[in-house]
Amino acid sequence: MQFIDLAAQQHRIRSIVEKRIQTVLNHGKYINGPEIPELEEKLSEFVGVPHAMGCSSGTDALLLALMALDIGPGDAVFTTPFTFIATAEVISLAGAMPVFVDIDPLTFNIDPAKLDQAVNALKSHKGDIHPLPVQAKVPDTRFEITPKAVIAVDLFGLPADYDRIMQVAEKHGLVVIEDAAQSLGAEYHGKKACSFGDIACASFFPAKPLGCYGDGGMCFTHNTELAARLKSLRNHGAGGHKYDNVRIGINGRLDAIQAAVLLCKFDIFPEEIGLRQEVAHRYSQMLSDTTLTAPKIPEGMMSVWAQYAILPKHGAARDFFQKALKDKDIPTAIYYPKPLHLQTAFKNLGYQPGDFPVSEDYSSRIFSIPMHPYLTHQDQELIVKTLSLT
Ligand SMILES: *Cc1c(COP(=O)(O)O)cnc(C)c1O
Question: Is the CB of 153 under 6 A from ligand 1?
């Protein structure tokens, strides 16, 4: 059994993919080929946002977003510690300071009430209101840290609570970045994921709901000026012509071959989103008779089910469940085994165990079971039967 069955998907579209890759080989425009604007147009229409910009990965999409919004040294960027490293890594790369905020236990996404507390704590240097990086706990007149942005993550394919996040952001004058690396195709109260905040960032890493055969990503924005800055930053800060450079940028372009693959996959993407809903619905029904907690989707939202993550009652039980599944050749994975505030890479921030109890508790218990559009009824039955007998 596959955790994510990319081969079953490829089997459906192989000949079309080969044809589109051949087209790229024939025209030879490997960089900035016509497949890129074609894909940008299709996804911008799908998401309902006027500007879409292909780029080299989901990580670079986030980095470009921070650069376009002028976020750097002296800026605090709020995000959750229960996410993939890239979300917070780019904050440090941009020279800004990550400030972590715990997750809502029901959705796994940033808790808007705690976000408000964290901003208040940072403004007043009061680590007792909310845990803060050690550098932000004392006032420093030479290097004041200002609350600047929040990166909300749509974890496992479920959009964060943008109505409430926007309220907090407006109150404190924060810009909002949507880390939609896992959620392209999801919905929040009638709006599509990738349409929230100042800039939204998607990833086309092969295992994401819409993935290519390599690395790729995309930025979405409603703002024409930001769109122009993003395009310049993606291409070494280009100005009017190729050797005119008006700002410091990166080589952050999307490959034409990857865009070609994505165009083929996008044709079956809406259908695959429907299939994912059916698989998730079956899991949710089957798991209701077990001791495991299955994800619940709040009213008015639709997850695209990048992962199907479940929670045993105790951390020790996770090992038993994973082993029982492994004995039947059923793959599992842990997203995420270590919250970011306890990662060595962020030890300079001085966070301690206990700072973010929900993220820490979930990291010790959570695991994900196979989830993809082509998962059969029988395979799901075997998975759930194995879990209920363990
Ligand atoms: C995958 C992922 C990223 C990074 O995307 P890449 O395309 O792998 O660089 C960022 N944030 C989250 C939440 C992700 O899951």
Answer: yes
Q: What is the pTM of this model?
A: 0.98
* CA dihedral angle for residue 333, residue 338, residue 339, residue 343, rounded to 10 degrees: -140
For residue 377 the two structure tokens come to: 């009824």
Ligand 1 geometric centre to CA of 307 (Å): 13
Instruction: Kindly report, residue by residue over 139-198, the tens digit of the pLDDT.
Output: 887 788 999 999 999 999 999 999 999 999 999 999 999 999 999 999 999 999 999 999
Q: Report the relative pairing of strands 175-179 and 146-153 from DSSP bridges.
A: parallel
Buried residues in 31-66 as b, exposed as e (16+ CB within 10 A): eebebbeebbebbbebbebebbbbbbbbbbbbbbbb
Longest dimension (CA), the chain: 65
Phi, psi of 260 (to 5 degrees): -65, -45
pLDDT tens per residue across span 225-261: 999 999 999 999 999 887 899 999 999 999 999 999 9
Question: What is the total residue count of the chain?
Answer: 390
Structure tokens at 91: 């904050």
Question: Probe ligand 1: pick from 56, 59, 89, max atoms within 8 Å of CB?
Answer: 59
Among protein residues, the one whose CA lies closest to atom 1 of ligand 1? 181
